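Note to self: the last two entries modelled the partners one at a time, which told us nothing about the interface. This time every component goes in together.
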Amino acid sequence: MQAAFAALSSVVSWFAGMIDPMCGPIGIFRLFAADTLLSCGDTGWGDEIAYGFMITASLAICTLPIGLFLGFFIALAKQSEEKSLRLATNIYTTIFRGLPELLTLFIVYYGLQIVAQRVMAAVGYEGPVEINAFIAGMIALGVVFSAYCSEVLLSAFKAIPRGQYEAGDALGFHRGKTMRLIILPQLVRIALPGLGNLWMALLKDTALVSVIGLPDILRQTGVAARVTKNAFEFFSIACLLFLILAMASSLVFSALERWTKRSEVAR
Amino acid sequence: MSHAETMLPALPPPPEALRRYTLSRLIGRVALGIWLAASVGIFLFVVESWSPEKFAKYGPSFISGLGVTLTLVSISIVLGGILSLPLAYGRMTKNKVISWIAYAYVYFFRGTPLITQLFLVYYGLGSFRPYLEAVGLWSLFKDAWFCALLTFTLNTAAYQAEILRGAIQSVPRGQHEGAAALGLPKRVAFFKIILPQAMIVALRPYGNEIILMIKGSAIVAIVTVFDLMGETRRAFSRTYDFQMYLWAAVLYLIMVEMLRNLWAWIETRLTRHLKR
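The predicted structure of the combined assembly is written out below.
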């Protein structure tokens, strides 16, 4: 069984290495930058930057579901009839939309460390506790994303007429089933442009996590710039990589938008 | 033929329906409780590590940091607003070359993180030191504050150009046609009819842009400008006292909330003729 897993993981990593767009056999750095500063391997910075690219992309992709999930329930709570629930969620969004992302990141990073240290000390463990930068980044960016996401989803909820809920009642659906079958498909369609903008903002905010030591695009290119003294070239590459991410996601989002609108009448 | 002989006695009002203790109320109470506990915890934490010397020592530097943040943001917003005019014109013109250049500028500055642009200007332009020295601009570009100002101006110009363009294009065609029907010259029509309506549409996005700039300006702390965030980081690195970050958070929140409320007030004031 373990041998099977090992074989599977080696196959997966071999496949990932083959289609790696930067340092794979047909990667751009391998093909076009063989003997330059960007070559792959020990002599160049190509593989380090490719690793940073992967970290940035995976941080954004890991944060998205957390933010969406939290944001959806906060949006639901904001339109609840219960006053205390609305108040609590409004405090949440006011705080996390008002704070600079960098400050949120520091507060989460250092604050979690303090909390973790106190908890561990209470348990009886003395010693340094360090929070993973990736996890801290995920929490901070996820919280900020959920605050903005709840506003987008709330306005999308308001755009869905009451009749749709009543139709669900008339069909004898349970509340959850109404939500799943009637409201959610329309909600996605209405909220998608706003969510696309939020995704772009999230992608750009991941660059901030390099400040607390996550080896993402910006940190890797920054290290390369400091070592080689070619700061302008390396930071241009960082900009270019972020532009590539933005272009790729705008392609994905326009495809998604077409897909969600497939059932609408062509006008 | 029957009719009521006696009046029915007045009934007491029906008992008020018992409000059920719903799940959402429970969750709301719990969430509020968590907020309360968090604020009490933070308060106790601040009280526990409070010291007047620290306050006397770092309080003034926080105020000066606040001043740096506000000057940086206000200058770059104004300069960016001026720079956004030709950009917005470029985005709307029929000339292919100009509109393509403006589009590329806007796409670059909106598609990359502000912090990367800042690094590109502050560290990247250092590579061109001999040329900059030859032109005599090096003393400007080695100053982190100036680099931050330049980056913010270029960045906010791209965003403001898009806001302006969107607002101008949101004015319905009929307004142009109405002006033309009245025989108004193009220039008068633009300044007296199109622009006033566009500015009302643009008001809210402009407010959001200022708030975004205030929040975004925190990153200048990384290139050694001592704005509010920079002073916070300096104080934290000297004292290892977490409450420095909490004070910075409170100051940022106050700034953003004041601006948001001011903007809401301006908006209701300016659009009161549209109220029905």
